[in-house]
């Protein structure tokens, strides 16, 4: 299974706005929309030097993502705003203090899609870490009939990656204001040029 996914990812034509992210100064909170998780492990391994820990929901949908990330060499922590949220936040805080990046989908675990929840801001505030927005565009993809319209790029298609640093939260800045700003940045860098083909 791992070989199959790696071969699939190897066919894709990735284009990124940077050669690599300079993460020598410390870990960051990586942000991407839930529908673009399929290529996130490849991007994390290619463009970042530090290990990445991914926050995955405790739902049934999250179970296959945990297995997928394990195949791809990414550690997963189970949790959400509804179940085990506080425990997951503490685990991620310890992981970041040990030097690892954290990857979060701010519209997970069950949406609404493309709605930025403030959990990622809380983690960045606790760890005094900046953000990196992981914008991903598929030029051709299949989309599932899930809440997030989960997308899988068609083999040999083009994938545009935009990695943008955003500053850590500052004292007195409202979490919702930060979340709104980061949502705008994610939307700007993640809208696919064409509508994906539907899958059951």
What would you note in describing this structure?
With 200 residues, the chain is α/β, with parallel strands linked by helices. It has one domain (2-198). 34% of the residues lie in helices and 22% in strands. It contains 6 helices and 10 strands, in the order H-E-E-H-E-H-E-H-E-H-E-E-E-E-H-E. It has helices at 2-11, 40-47, 60-71, 85-97, 119-127, 175-190, and strands at residues 13-16, 29-31, 52-56, 75-78, 101-104, 131-138, 141-143, 151-153, 158-166, 197-198. The strands form 2 sheets. It has a 7-stranded mixed β-sheet, sandwiched between helices. Strands 8-7-10 form a 3-stranded mixed β-sheet, with no helix packed on it. A hairpin with a 7-residue loop joins strand 7 and strand 8 (151-153). Helix 4 (85-97) packs parallel to helix 5. The longest helix is centred in the C-terminal third of the chain and has 16 residues, at 175-190. It is globular and about 45 Å long. It starts with a helix and ends with a strand. The mean pLDDT is 88.
> Roughly how many Å is the radius of gyration?
16 Å
Domain tally:
1
Residue share in helix? 25-40%
Arrangement of strands in the largest sheet: 1-9-6-2-5-3-4
The end-to-end distance, rounded to whole angstroms, is 21 Å
Tally of strands = 10
Order of helices and strands: HEEHEHEHEHEEEEHE
């Amino acid at each position: 299974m791992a070989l199959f996914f790696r071969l699939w990812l190897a066919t894709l034509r990735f284009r990124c706005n940077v050669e690599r992210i300079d993460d020598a100064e410390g870990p960051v909170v990586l942000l991407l929309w839930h529908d673009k998780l399929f290529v996130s492990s490849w991007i994390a391994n290619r463009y970042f030097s530090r290990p990445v820990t991914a926050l995955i929901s405790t739902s049934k949908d999250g179970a296959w993502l945990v297995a997928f990330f394990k195949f791809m060499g990414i550690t997963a922590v189970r949790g959400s705003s509804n179940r085990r949220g506080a425990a997951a936040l503490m685990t991620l805080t310890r992981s970041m203090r040990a030097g690892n990046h954290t990857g979060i989908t701010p519209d997970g675990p069950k949406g609404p899609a493309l709605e930025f929840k403030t959990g990622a801001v809380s983690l960045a505030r606790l760890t005094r870490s900046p953000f990196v927005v992981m914008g991903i565009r598929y030029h051709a993809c299949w989309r599932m009939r899930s809440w997030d319209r989960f997308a899988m790029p068609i083999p040999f298609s083009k994938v545009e990656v935009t990695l943008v640093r955003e500053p850590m939260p500052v004292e007195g800045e409202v979490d919702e204001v930060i979340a709104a700003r980061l949502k705008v940045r994610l939307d700007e860098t993640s809208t696919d040029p064409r509508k994906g083909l539907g899958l059951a």
